[in-house]
Write a structure and sequence with these properties.
The structure holds two protein chains of two kinds.
Chain A: E1 2-8, E2 11-17, E3 26-30, H1 37-44, E4 52-54, E5 56-57, E6 60-61, H2 67-72, E7 75-78, H3 90-94, E8 101-103, E9 106-107, H4 109-122, H5 138-149, E10 156-160, H6 168-183, E11 187-191, H7 195-201, E12 204-209, E13 212-218, H8 224-232, E14 250-259, E15 263-271, E16 275-280, H9 286-294, E17 301-306, E18 309-311, H10 316-321, E19 324-327, H11 331-335, H12 342-347, E20 355-356, E21 359-360, H13 362-375, H14 392-405, E22 410-414, H15 422-437, E23 441-445, H16 449-455, E24 458-463, E25 466-472, H17 478-486
Parallel strand pairs in A: 3-11, 3-12, 7-10, 10-11, 16-23, 16-24, 19-22, 22-23
Antiparallel strand pairs in A: 1-2, 1-4, 5-6, 8-9, 12-13, 14-15, 14-17, 17-18, 20-21, 24-25
Helix pairs in contact in A: 8-17, 13-14
Chain B: H1 3-26, H2 33-58, H3 66-82, H4 87-110, H5 116-135, E1 140-141, H6 145-152, H7 160-178, H8 180-190, H9 192-197, H10 202-228, E2 230-231, H11 239-249, H12 261-280, H13 285-310
Antiparallel strand pairs in B: 1-2
Helix pairs in contact in B: 1-12, 2-7, 2-8, 2-10, 2-11, 2-12, 3-4, 3-5, 3-10, 4-5, 4-10, 6-10, 7-8, 8-10, 11-12
The chains are: A alpha/beta, B mainly alpha.
Chain lengths: ~500, ~300
């Protein structure tokens, strides 16, 4: 792949990236969340279109303009979420869409089973081809996925975090399969955050950062700390208008919060005037933490104190009544009712207070909504505009207005600037400053390290459902945060 | 909810007017005062049930049990009247029956996690079975002369059931546009998760929507029993389909979150006028079913083509 570029409105996802993968090697792609690994692989497998650049397979220019074309060129991909049909057997899944026929329309079951057995043996897999896939373990399902992906014409296999759901023994099985594949001349592109794995099975590694290729090295020549340095060493190009406020009394305290298999013994606090940043890799449990505090998901243990008093939070309504607001990571599916207008969305959490005997006081509601539209400079033709027609930045401001209208003192913001253009980002940061200056406290989850470093007063790092490190603003660096998030705290 | 919706509403009204103009040209019997009164009166039952259905569909659900609830609430009413209960008490009992059926639907959906289709399909069979068991399959006839006047009296020259229907539509419009409950119904249908994360008690409000559908079905049962002067356990067969058709023709999205009761009223009138017109034209009842089915499909098809083009 040479000169690959891809831009989304407001962000450059890939900037002139080159990647060369040799037959028979395991090529590791490294980078933090949003570095561009997944985008690059989606371009290679034809799931999304590139803006510029060229792809060659076996020395020949390959015009990959869709999944079908990628498949024809021998590119196969296995994603984190498996794509098997749970009620069909392993054999039926492997041959889905290309079943051997006895005559048109009738499947040759015997041939399908024997070919499946052959394929599984070739890969050294022990899977019962007649068993329904949902009865197999995750590792075995992944093997089926591998067998499905690999036919005679497979040249390149992309694996995106394949070990995230596997036990140690299953990982060994997977590695053995990968070694057998590369010995046969297949190239494997492997995305992982587990750096020990990278050292064990990788031949070469390419590090991406902010959509650019930083380096390609022989795995044997780079140490793990060096890999982290390559991933982390970003320039703080963006300007953060952070204004610090001396922290006041405690607004929110969480003690020993637990949710089985998701969150383990989480304790934290947020004070007036403070922004507490929560960093971590995807799947570290950050969003789950926010949802557990809000009462949106059940908890298995732990206590929550709001304004110094023990709070019973069983439902988001309980948290909201006590002054907690939540900006979810996905505005479209969780933050807003897209088909309703700006006014209806802003007033949703506080509607009962804008009503008398269940009847909404229309004039007051319009006045409140109009006030926030003006204060937050939400660009909309009017409060009756459907929110789906606003830009991302303005939609996020509407979500913020919801919680301001509900008098929230503590705001939990999950990826507050995701998918927002640079100008609107700075506006959101300014609004955060305004909030803390007025004595509110903010718990900010973000995958963008510069944002975490730029806007937080204190920083917590999560990994595998736990808080593994805490830093003051002064002592935090990208490298230290990333080390903790990857489990390599010095 | 303003322009796009206004345009859709205008389309439905134009459809109704066009249909009336066509029938006026085709038959001299259509545009007479007695026939128009007749059409309106025949529309009331479906129109009243369709109010509850509109709330349910707006919230993103569906209720297949409304027809059976009409039968069950009707036989409860009939037997209460025969037992000599005062009319208001008998009506209250019937409405309570509708509310209970609706509450069971709602709880099965919100607490039991059943899809609305399944919960109300089950209730459709249960309520019908109970009505048949209770009456041993026979109608309860000759209820009460005073009660009949609910159907036959015409204060202000308008039949009482029509007045009842108009009052219900005004109330429903008010609830949907002016109250917190109405707002939550739109919000839940538009995005249940975002609504829940905004602190709205989604389960409670969804349950209330089904209670409301049960109550409007019972109100329809009261009107029907008064008109027929008898309560029948086989009443209300397939009423759910007419109510869904009126709602959908009226522009309410089956996905929830968008629609109006005024649209539903026009939808119910279109259904009523169409039936009446086909009768006046002497078209066989078999062919009528075909025509009505085609109209329902055409109305929604036009809608879906227009929305796709806008995108």
């Amino acid at each position: 792949m040479t000169g690959i570029c891809k831009a989304y409105p407001g962000v450059v996802a890939l900037d002139n990236v080159d990647l060369e993968v040799r037959a028979g090697e395991v090529h590791i792609l490294l980078g933090e969340n949003g570095a561009g690994k997944s985008t690059l692989m989606k371009i290679l497998s034809g799931a999304i279109a590139r803006d510029a650049g060229a792809i060659e397979v076996d020395g020949q220019r390959a015009e990959i303009n869709g999944p079908r074309a990628a498949h024809d060129r021998g590119v196969r991909a296995i994603y984190q979420e498996l794509t098997l049909v749970p009620y069909l057997s392993a054999a039926e899944n492997i041959f889905l869409g290309r079943e051997p026929r006895l005559f048109p329309g009738v499947i040759d079951r015997r041939r399908m089973l024997s070919q499946t057995r052959d394929a599984l043996t070739r890969l050294g897999l022990q899977v019962d081809p007649e068993k329904a896939v949902r009865e197999l373990g995750i590792a075995q399902q992944q093997m089926v996925e591998v067998a499905k992906a690999l036919d005679d014409r497979a040249r390149v296999l992309i694996m995106d975090e394949p070990t995230s759901a596997l036990s140690d023994r299953e990982i060994e099985e997977l590695f053995a399969t990968i070694q057998r594949l590369t010995a046969g001349g297949t190239a494997v592109i492997y995305i992982s955050h587990r750096l020990e794995e990278v050292k064990r099975i990788g031949h070469r590694v390419t590090v991406l950062r902010d959509g650019r290729r930083i380096a390609t090295r022989e795995v044997a020549d780079v140490s793990i700390p060096e890999m982290i340095r390559l991933m982390a060493n970003r320039e703080l190009a963006e300007h953060f208008p952070k204004r610090r406020v001396p922290p006041g009394e405690e607004l929110l305290r969480v003690e020993h919060l637990r949710r089985r298999g998701v969150l383990e013994d989480i304790s934290l606090s947020v004070h007036r005037g403070e922004v507490v940043g929560v960093a971590g890799l995807l799947g570290a449990g950050r969003t789950e933490l926010a949802r557990a505090i809000m009462g949106a998901d059940p908890r298995d243990g732990g206590r929550i104190f709001i304004n110094g008093a023990a709070a019973e939070v069983h439902h988001p309504g309980d948290a909201i009544r006590q002054g907690v607001g939540f900006l979810p990571e996905d505005r479209k599916t969780q933050g807003l009712v897209q088909g309703l207008c700006v006014r209806d969305n802003i007033s949703l959490p506080s509607l009962s207070r804008l009503a008398r005997a269940g009847i909404v006081q229309g004039a007051r509601e319009r006045q409140v909504a109009g006030g926030f539209v003006k204060d937050l400079r939400i660009k909309t033709p009017g409060v009756e505009q459907i929110v789906a027609q606003l830009s991302g930045g303005n939609q996020q401001k509407v979500v913020l207005a919801k919680w301001l209208a509900a008098n929230a003192d503590v705001l939990i913001m999950d990826e507050p600037t995701r998918g927002i253009d640079v100008g609107a980002k700075v506006e959101i940061y300014e609004l955060m400053n305004g909030l803390t200056a007025r004595g509110a406290g903010i718990l900010m989850i973000s995958s963008e390290l510069p944002e975490i470093l730029g806007m937080s007063d204190r920083i917590l790092v999560m990994r595998l459902g736990r808080i593994v490190a805490a830093f003051d603003r002064a002592e935090a660096t990208q490298e230290r945060i990333l080390q903790a998030a990857l489990g390599h705290a010095a | 909810m303003t322009t796009a919706f206004g345009r859709r509403q205008l389309g439905t009204i134009l459809g109704l007017v066009g249909l009336c103009v066509l029938l006026t040209i085709l038959t001299p019997h259509f545009l007479t005062i007695s026939n128009l009164l007749n059409v309106t009166q025949q529309t009331t039952i479906n129109a009243i049930i369709a109010v509850g259905m509109t709330f349910v569909i707006l919230s993103g659900g569906i209720d297949l049990s409304v027809g059976s609830i009409v039968a069950l609430a009707g036989v409860v009413l009939g037997s209460a009247l025969q037992a000599g209960l005062p009319i208001p008490a008998a009506i209250a009992l019937s409405l309570a029956m509708g509310a209970v059926c609706g509450a069971v639907n709602g709880l099965l959906i919100t607490r039991g996690g059943l899809p609305p289709f399944i919960a109300t399909l089950g209730m459709m069979s249960i309520a019908r079975g109970l009505a048949l068991m209770y009456t041993d399959g026979r109608p309860i006839s000759g209820v009460d002369a005073a009660f009949r006047s609910l159907s036959t009296s015409s204060p202000l020259m308008i039949p009482a059931p029509v007045i009842l229907m108009i009052v219900i539509y005004i109330a429903a419009h008010f609830v949907l546009t002016r109250t917190t409950f109405g707002r939550y119904v739109y919000a839940i249908g538009g995005n249940e998760e975002a609504t829940r994360l905004s602190g709205v008690r989604v389960a409670f409000h969804k349950t209330m929507v089904y209670v409301l559908a049960g109550v409007t079905s019972a109100i329809a049962a009261v009107t029907l029993t008064a008109r027929l002067n008898s309560a029948q356990p086989i009443a209300g067969m397939m009423y759910e389909l007419d109510a869904i058709a009126a709602t959908v023709i009226g522009g309410t999205s089956l996905l929830g979150g968008s629609g109006t009761v005024s649209g539903t009223l026009v939808g119910a009138l279109i259904m009523g006028v169409l039936r009446n017109g086909l009768n006046l034209l002497g078209i066989s009842s078999f062919l009528q079913q075909v025509v009505i089915g085609a109209v329902i499909i055409a109305a929604v098809l036009v809608d879906s083509i227009l929305t796709r083009r806008r995108k």
